[in-house]
Amino acid sequence: MEKNRVHIQKCKELHSDTLKAMEAIRWEAIVNKGDRVAIKVNLGYPEPRRGVITTPELVYEVIRILKSKECEVTVVDSDGLLFPIASVCKESGLLELIEKAGAKFVNLTYDDKITVHPKNTLFVKEYSMPKTLSNMDVFITMPVLKTHDITLYTGALKNQFGCYPNRNRVHLHPHLDEAIWDINAILRPKIVIMDALTALEGNGPGRGFPVKMDMIITSNNPVSCDLVALQIMEFNVRDVKHVLLAKEVNEDADDYIVTGEPIENIKRKFMEPYDDLANKAQKFIFKHKILTKLFFDTDIGRKIIKIGVAYRKWALKGKTEYL
Questions:
Q1: Which CATH architecture has domain 4-273?
Q2: 302 vs 151: which has the higher pLDDT
Q3: What average pLDDT score do residues 240-267 get?
Q4: What DSSP letter does each residue of 114-177 carry, written as one string?
Q5: Per-domain residue ranges of the chain
Q6: Which one, 112, 145, 244, 246, has the greatest CB density within 10 A?
Q7: Mean pLDDT value across residues 221-246
Q8: Long-range contacts of 164-167 (CB under 8 A, 24+ apart)
Q9: Phi, psi angles (nearest 5°) of residue 73
């Protein structure tokens, strides 16, 4: 069996280096002429911050390259629990660039759904699949290289968590690791184009410190991509439970080759999230199904969450560039 491929591309000129990064993982052997392609971006914050959301200009270049094979391209994401994505999609310039490139954007939260019953999943036995995703030939994921204050790291695998279209997907958190693997098993991303132009350390996924890296990481396997990304950030995979689980389930994930920039030349120790009282409480709540339901499905619970959000802004002053 051929080894999985992970390519690390230093980016000086966005279009040509994006093309090089995609060619290194043989994208043309994966995508056929006229294919329907979904691109899952990361718009997981209400403000268009570099290192937090997928760089709009990078998305534009990827669409241009796909259009060279006459692909029908749809860019997707879904609303978060506390905010919709419409404003950040527009304010970041992403929507304009998507339309300029001849693609379209679909918010999966409002897409028609079909119920599927996947086999060989670990926890999710019924999935309300957005109709847009059910009609795709190729699924591409475009995450950002960044930290996460619940899971330590978020990347290629976790980006698909946003493909659970219900804003209350927070109820999956007691089984988060399994739910992340399951959505990847259902959607089967064939190409990863990780945005490491500006990464994020500290209290990601929305706060923290931007890290200018000027890199694009591509792969034909999301687990292999995450394993390489963790090495770049100098994080131990054993501390990132959803990647560790995926590595154990996906037996060939460790069988990969890395091309482009050597990991040794670019790795740096990323600052881990600051674990304040509110974050510790949130992680404790997410471990228990009843507590998660209590805090996120009741008025008093939501009020406590708002107090926690305000407290975190105070607690993180001086510990993050993005508040």
A1: 3-Layer(aba) Sandwich (3.40)
A2: 151
A3: 95
A4: EEE--SS-SS---EEEEHHHHT-SEEEE--EEEEETTTEEE-TTGGGGGGS-STTGGGGGGGHH
A5: 4-273, 274-323
A6: 145
A7: 98
A8: 164/78, 164/127, 165/78, 165/108, 165/109, 165/111, 165/113, 165/128, 165/130, 166/109, 166/128, 167/78, 167/79, 167/80, 167/81, 167/109
A9: -110, 130
Q: Write out the two tokens for 180.
A: 């992340």
What's the pLDDT score for residue 312? 64
Decide if pLDDT at 173 tops 90. no
Handedness of CA 219, 223, 227, 232 (dihedral sign): positive
* pLDDT tens, residue by residue, 139-157: 999 999 999 999 999 999 9
- Between CA 322 and CA 199 the distance in angstroms is 13
DSSP for 226-275 reads: HHHHHHHHT--GGG-HHHHHHHHHSTTTT-EEEEES-HHHH---PPPPP-
Q: Which residue has the tokens 């991509």?
A: 225
Tokens of 282: 């949130």
